[in-house]
Amino acid sequence: MKSPVVFLDRDGVISEEKSYVLSLKDFVIFPYSKKCIKKIHEYGYKAIVITNQSAVGRGMLSIETLEQMNKYLLDQTEVDAIYYCPHWNNNNSKIKNQFQISCNCRKPKTGLIEQALTEWDITLNNSYFIGDRASDIELGKKMGLTTILVESGYGLERLEYEVFPDFVCKDLEEAVLKIKGDL
Ligand SMILES: [Zn+2]
Asked: For the chain, which has fewer Cβ within 10 Å, the N-terminal or C-terminal residue?
């Protein structure tokens, strides 16, 4: 049987939100994240991270460093998979690299979730998207997911545009209680 999924944004949900996380030492995973991912698994969901990392396209972060962070995140939290968009589409950039394209994977575009659907035995039925930004909620809604906005990152007062999440929770711990049905 196909597993439902809890899709999670990374920065502000699983780890501390900083405008850009550019090295492993800047990458601070919240102390409760591992426990939360364990619960998500116990409730029968896959836990898949969907993250925009435009710092790569901006020339501020190498793919190698990002892959190190991914390995660390997988080790520390035991999420099932991490899908990221490294792209940044800006022709005026002084630094040029191959990640400066108009892609179909930068949230709120759907490419990363579509890729996950081809690589995992998962269903979007009864599935969730947990994020801290408007693009997370927009993507979750597009894909028919139940959306949870958490306030542990950008927060409600810094939403880039108006969105209507199904639920608002303080952080991932509270979101997991919501998924379990205890809230
Ligand atoms: Zn992309």
From this structure: N
> Is the model's pTM score more than 0.85?
yes
Neighbours of 29 (CB within 10 A): 16
* DSSP tag of 76: H
Fold of 5-180: Rossmann fold (3.40.50)
Active-site hit among 11, 80, 132, 171: 11
Query: Using one digit for the tens of pLDDT, what is the confidence trace for 26-58?
Result: 999 999 999 999 999 999 999 999 999 999 999
Q: For this structure, is 9 an active site residue?
A: yes
The alpha carbon of 99 is separated from its chain's Cα centroid by a whole number of angstroms, namely 19
pLDDT digit string (tens) for 77-99? 999 999 999 999 876 777 788 99
Q: How far is the CA of 9 from the centre of ligand 1 (A)?
A: 15
User: Residue 6 — φ and ψ, nearest 5°?
Assistant: -105, 110
- Residue 110 CA to ligand 1 center (angstroms) comes to 10
